[in-house]
Design brief:
about 350 residues; alpha/beta; Rossmann fold; UDP-galactose 4-epimerase, domain 1; 2 domains; 7-stranded parallel sheet
């Protein structure tokens, strides 16, 4: 029996996660309505109904319409999310809120969905405010919708249309060749997920009317080596060594990788939060790439081959001409300086 098409409201819908979700929903035959300010890439979906409005001040343009589900991909401020929840009320059967693993208090030990969350209003350092705001948003959505709320907590999301230069940096860097600085240790865990896999899981969650909280990140492997990075299998967490091996073999086998330990990078004053793209060297975040995803896996989370993510991201990055100067993750000059000092 073919599932019936869903009517979906996407708050946002033209950047990265929202754009990919809308594309996937349309491909599955669902009816999609976007609600946004019409400022970011308004040309992306000319065939899709777009309601222009500013969720921070007024959602009256939504009228009295009903949808099977709303997907909130751009909720960062608690009061803005509260406004959306109040405006939609019973006019959506399910509220899907895209949160973040940054909501967790403890990033030093392996966590599941039941870990303690940050609380706004406490004396938090600046780097935890984003997570605390997301946690507050989660509480608002859960309080309003209960079992009809689906909380999606991604880790690092990667793939085509990534607005950051965290993941795109690496295929591009290997393509350039030469000596490539690799941060940390080859055995360090690397937990990230293709944006298209996040979108597919969200749509499946809505179709199955699945509520609750889910850590939606990845990937996991059952064996080591290069082929573990290519194929979709489950087991232990992917390592940075395997990720970089895929980049090297797929993009430029002639590149010369040089590993520089986290200890050396920290002593050299490199920003521990992705001063080298995708590297997190802060001691209090040693488990940030080892999050328990068993609940999402049991609920159907699947991954495309890593080689596909690398190749597609490189193709998209090349087509756009690479990142803007102020987005580049690590300049060639800074990389060379670090290599000269630390290798």
């Amino acid at each position: 029996m073919t599932p019936r098409p869903l009517s979906l409201l996407v708050l946002g819908g033209t950047r990265f996660v929202g754009r990919t979700l809308a594309e996937a929903a349309l491909a599955e035959g669902h009816q999609v309505t976007l609600f946004n300010r019409g400022r970011t890439a308004p040309e992306v979906f000319p065939e899709v109904e777009t309601i222009i409005g500013d969720r921070t001040t007024d959602l009256s343009a939504l009228g009295d319409r009903r949808w099977d589900a709303v997907v909130d991909v751009a909720g960062y401020e608690p009061e803005v999310v509260r406004r959306s929840v109040t405006a939609l009320g019973e006019r959506v059967d399910r509220y899907v809120f895209v949160s973040s693993l940054s909501v967790l208090v403890d990033q030093a030990t392996v966590q599941n969905e039941d870990g303690n969350l940050l609380v706004l209003g406490e004396d938090l350092p600046p780097h935890q405010l984003y997570g605390a705001r997301k946690a507050a948003c989660e509480r608002i959505v859960l309080g309003a919708y209960g079992e009809r709320a689906s909380i999606v907590r991604p880790g690092m999301i990667v793939g085509p249309h990534d607005p950051t230069d965290r993941f795109p940096y690496w295929p591009r860097r290997f393509q350039r060749g030469g000596t490539v600085l690799l941060p940390g240790d080859p055995a360090d865990a690397a937990q990230f997920i293709d944006v298209r896999d996040v979108a597919a899981w969200i749509l499946g969650c809505i179709a199955a009317q699945r509520g609750g909280i889910y850590n939606v990140t990845g990937r996991t492997l059952s064996f080591g080596g290069f082929f573990a990075g290519i194929y979709n299998v489950t087991g232990r967490t992917l390592s940075f060594g395997e990720f970089f091996a895929v980049c090297r073999v797929l993009v430029n086998p002639g590149a010369e990788p040089v590993w520089v330990s986290s200890e050396k990078l920290l002593k050299a004053g490199v920003n521990p939060w992705m001063g080298v793209p995708m590297w997190i060297g802060a001691p209090e975040c040693v488990a940030i790439n080892r999050v328990d995803i068993s609940r999402a896996l049991a609920a159907g989370l699947m991954y495309r081959p890593l080689a596909e993510t690398v190749a597609d991201t490189l193709a998209w990055d090349t087509a756009r001409g690479g990142p803007a100067v102020d987005e580049e993750g690590l300049t060639a000059a800074e990389e060379q300086r670090l290599l000269d000092e630390l290798r």
